[in-house]
């Protein structure tokens, strides 16, 4: 590129200026000739084409000027109409009309300025922020794809030239609330990814926290890891440049009054004022597991009464607080996305989540467990196992499977092995392997259960048997099938009422190697919550061999957690026996599925 510019300039010096278009005064007339114009015009056209194509991929139906306003508010946070007009190089009246259209679409709202009630600011709604994030990501991907083949030095030269042009808007360096202004979430994820790549596996967590602190302009950031049992948040070493006092150094009970614990239980970010500083807490919810909570010591005004500000605008939250909460949420989402892969080569992160003496059986059990959380647009599922440590009979799994021409389904599995404690995790591992193999072959649940039965019987000759409950829910929420043996109960929460659903009793897998299974329908529909409970979770229900008091306790807990996310429901169920037995005598496992789809009939497998 630089060579081409030099050649065109030398050609321009040897040609007469007759017939040339008139130039405006300035450096442009000295360095730009016809060839330059054609090259730059073609490049500009290419950029416009890329951005237009990226905009067309959005399912928002917005025009380029409207997207520009959305991007400005995303980058700068709540702003006045005049500020938006200046940033988009349009008139105030044009910017105001564009804001009216975006407001009608539910993408922005007008709010009072926190320091001057006479001033009105434009602020993106949650839907607007989501649209902005998707737009910035698509735009960045399009430009990155176009420049991918360029040598690094050429890209650096282009960026340097653009930065030197006063007509090119400055690119902000950090997220809203940080010291240097806002940055797009895509840039944050890129920076955090670079930090992870540059770090040793055992330093991945610290690198992510340091990158989050830098992006937020925070004095420090810390990750509180959810313990294996789900009872505590275990503090990892904080990272940052400022004073770290006030961040926890001891385990934080999840059921305590801690704001960090409240953020996890409520699945929502919170701001906390302690009179000296502001803290932000955001749950770190990965696609496969609940990681914990990201806490950041934020800059700026520490004043205000003790309390928390929620993302929904309650308790006096202003525009700045909303931007900060969004920023912390983005950081937490990035940590959830990057941390599992970044720490895959090092077991210390997983070991740091253990809150009990470990055994070989527990190690086998831990390594075979599937995800503890899975979310699709129509079905959200979670599983939790509270181990008995010396027994290790249970296992769980969550997965998305292909089901022929359908849109796919979510599979949930809960296992409980009937055998000695040394054999139990091995028998459960064989059953899980058979079930996962059946998924890969596209088998239905009846055939999957038969394969597990055959595999366990072949491995142990009838000396071990595995009770199981299998659930397959279509990803559109329209249908499902369930298979269960005698150790499990199913509960449906619908319209504020909990009902224990009758399940047919099946043979445990591995007893004979020849069990047969059939399906029958069950009444489930959109908006229902289905909870599957093992014999050690929440105590047994009356139908599962427990007492009426046990059944009442499960019903009460499900009503108490009706507004909570599935991962909080199963955490509470699995921990319920711990309130009676400091050292549980058997594993406690529960699975929760929320049906968010268009409704439909659900089927249960029965022998």
UniProtKB/TrEMBL annotation:
Location of the region described as Disordered in the Swiss-Prot/TrEMBL record: 1-29
Record-level GO BP terms: response to stress
GO molecular function ontology, one term from the record: DNA-binding transcription factor activity
Compositionally biased spans, kind Low complexity: 1-17
Top-rank taxon: Bacteria
InterPro entries: HTH_MarR-typ (IPR000835), MarR/SlyA-like (IPR039422), PPM-type-like_dom_sf (IPR036457), PPM-type_phosphatase-like_dom (IPR001932), WH-like_DNA-bd_sf (IPR036388), WH_DNA-bd_sf (IPR036390)
Any Pfam family hit: SpoIIE
Domain spans labelled HTH marR-type: 33-167
SUPFAM superfamilies membership: Winged helix' DNA-binding domain (SSF46785)
Coiled coil spans: none
Protein name, entry field: MarR family transcriptional regulator
């Amino acid at each position: 590129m630089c060579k081409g510019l030099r050649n065109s300039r030398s050609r321009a010096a040897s040609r007469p200026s007759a017939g040339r278009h008139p130039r405006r005064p300035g450096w442009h007339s000295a360095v730009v000739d016809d060839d330059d114009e054609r090259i730059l015009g073609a490049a500009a056209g290419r950029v416009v084409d890329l951005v237009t194509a990226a905009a067309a991929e959005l399912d928002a139906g917005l025009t380029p000027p409207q997207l520009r306003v959305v991007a400005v508010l995303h980058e700068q946070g709540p702003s006045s109409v005049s500020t938006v007009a200046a940033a988009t190089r349009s008139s105030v009246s044009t910017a105001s009309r564009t804001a009216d259209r975006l407001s009608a679409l539910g993408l922005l709202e007008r709010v009072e300025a926190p320091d001057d009630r006479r001033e009105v600011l434009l602020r993106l709604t949650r839907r607007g922020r989501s649209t902005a994030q998707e737009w910035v990501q698509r735009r960045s991907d399009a430009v990155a794809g176009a420049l991918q083949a360029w040598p690094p030095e050429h890209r650096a030269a282009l960026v340097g030239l653009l930065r030197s042009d006063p007509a090119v808007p400055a690119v902000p360096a950090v997220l809203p609330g940080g010291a240097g202004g806002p940055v797009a979430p895509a840039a944050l994820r890129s920076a955090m990814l670079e930090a992870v790549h540059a770090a040793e596996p055992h330093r991945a967590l610290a690198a992510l926290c340091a990158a989050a602190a830098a992006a937020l302009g925070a004095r420090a950031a810390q990750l509180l890891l959810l313990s294996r049992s789900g009872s505590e948040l275990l503090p990892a070493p904080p990272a940052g440049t400022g004073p770290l006092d006030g961040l926890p150094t001891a385990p934080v009970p999840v059921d305590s009054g801690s704001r960090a614990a409240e953020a996890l239980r409520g699945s929502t970010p919170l701001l906390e004022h302690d009179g000296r500083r502001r803290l932000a807490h955001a749950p770190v919810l990965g696609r496969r597991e609940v990681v914990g909570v990201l806490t950041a010591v934020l800059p700026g005004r520490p004043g205000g009464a003790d309390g928390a500000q929620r993302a929904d605008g309650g308790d006096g939250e202003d525009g700045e607080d909303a931007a900060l909460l969004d920023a912390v949420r983005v950081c937490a989402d990035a940590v959830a996305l990057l941390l599992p892969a970044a720490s895959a080569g090092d077991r210390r992160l997983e070991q740091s989540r253990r809150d009990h003496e470990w055994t070989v059986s527990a190690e086998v059990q831990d390594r075979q467990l599937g995800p503890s959380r899975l979310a699709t647009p129509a079905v959200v599922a979670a599983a939790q196992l509270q181990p008995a440590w010396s027994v290790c009979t249970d296992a769980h799994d969550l997965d998305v499977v292909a089901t022929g021409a359908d849109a796919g389904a979510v599979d949930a599995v809960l296992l409980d092995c009937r055998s000695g404690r040394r054999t139990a995790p091995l028998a459960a591992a064989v059953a899980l392997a058979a079930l996962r193999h059946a998924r890969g072959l596209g088998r239905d649940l009846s055939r999957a259960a038969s394969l597990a039965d055959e595999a366990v019987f072949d491995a142990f000759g009838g000396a071990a048997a595995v009770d199981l409950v299998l659930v397959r829910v279509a990803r559109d929420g329209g249908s499902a099938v369930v298979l269960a043996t005698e150790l499990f109960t199913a509960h449906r929460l619908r319209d504020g009422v909990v009902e224990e659903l009758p399940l047919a009793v099946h043979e445990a897998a591995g007893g004979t190697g020849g069990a047969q299974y059939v399906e029958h329908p069950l009444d489930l529909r959109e908006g229902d919550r289905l909870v599957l409970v093992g014999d050690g979770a929440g105590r047994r229900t009356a139908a599962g061999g427990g007492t009426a008091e046990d059944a009442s306790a499960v019903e009460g807990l499900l009503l108490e957690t009706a507004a909570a996310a599935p991962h909080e429901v199963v955490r509470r169920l699995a921990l319920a026996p711990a309130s009676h037995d400091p050292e549980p005598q058997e594993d406690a496992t529960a699975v929760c599925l929320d049906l968010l789809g268009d409704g439909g009939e659900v089927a249960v497998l029965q022998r």
